[in-house]
Amino acid sequence: MGRFFTNPEQLQQAGLRAHEAYKAAITSGDAATRSLASVEYSSAFASELANVVATRTLELTDKLEQRIAALEKSQFGYFGVFEEGKSYRKNSFLTDSGSLWIARKETAQRPGSNEDWKLAVKRGRDGKDSK
Question: CB 56: neighbour CB atoms within 10 A?
Answer without folding.
Answer: 15
